[in-house]
Design a protein that fits this description.
globular, 11 strands, alpha+beta
Length: 207
Amino acid sequence: MRALGLACLMIAVAAPASAADCSKDVLAAFEKQRTSKVFRVEFSQPSAEGEVHMVIDYMPPDKMLQTVTSPAMPGEQQTMLIGNRAYAGSGGAFEELLPQFTQSIIAEFASAVGEPKNLGDFECVGNLKLDDQDFVAYRLAEKAAEGADPSTVMARTVYVDPASGKPAYNIIAALGGSAPPALKVKYSYPTDVEIVAPANAPVQKLH
């Protein structure tokens, strides 16, 4: 299962870029993220078979490891990029992907670690607590219809760690009500990640 492209969407949104002060703050936070030695993107999504959980470790300039777990799969499914070579496998057994698949992964990786673009117009929300931690929050400015039910108005909020200045969460949720977020992306910056090419991985065969 490949969903690297979805992770890229966590950073870019469709609204036009803005020079507003709060938008600049969000842009600066993602700039710090992409220049980190390692950053991790983690989120879950429902599927017909159950919840799918994804963890993607990015190690600029050219390494990535994506791990997907799902009730529909026998174990962890992993996709790895090292330089201009990509691998896929499960349980430690990898195959080297063919060039046509590798190029797609390289392009998506470049989008994820490239300069953030089209972040949109973010408003300063101020200090907010999430998962018992204090963050500085920024919300994508959305013009809701007059009289709209807040529980039906979806908004994107980026939570930034005030100590590091890096993004910690990127959440899409209703402005009002108690419904769980439609999407909750967690960012972290582990220091113990190693991404090493599998030894003697056979080249993928098309079936």
